[in-house]
Design the sequence.
């Protein structure tokens, strides 16, 4: 007897989910940026400055990148209903 494979729901990230993913990823990167710059320079002000500037433009870039890839069909496979 053949068993039916589990059905997968085709889900799409909402705008809210993309924002939360971007922010949680940024939190990790903020910590890494600060730590790395501080280790190399020993300067808290420089580390904070780099962390702030870097994370503003890279957060926007990450969000746009996620939304763009959501629209690209390459590499997606249809899910049998």
Sequence:
């Amino acid at each position: 007897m053949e068993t039916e494979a589990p059905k997968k729901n085709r889900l799409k990230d909402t705008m809210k989910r993309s924002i939360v993913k971007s922010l949680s990823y940024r939190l990790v990167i903020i910590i890494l940026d600060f730590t790395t710059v501080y280790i190399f320079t020993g300067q808290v002000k420089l580390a904070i400055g780099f962390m702030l500037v870097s994370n503003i433009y890279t957060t926007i870039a990450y969000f746009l990148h996620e939304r763009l890839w959501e629209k690209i069909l390459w590499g997606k496979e249809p899910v049998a209903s």
Q: What stands out?
A: Residues 16-70 form one domain. Helices lie at 15-41, 44-71. The longest helix spans residues 44-71. Residues 37 and 46 are 8 Å apart (CA to CA).
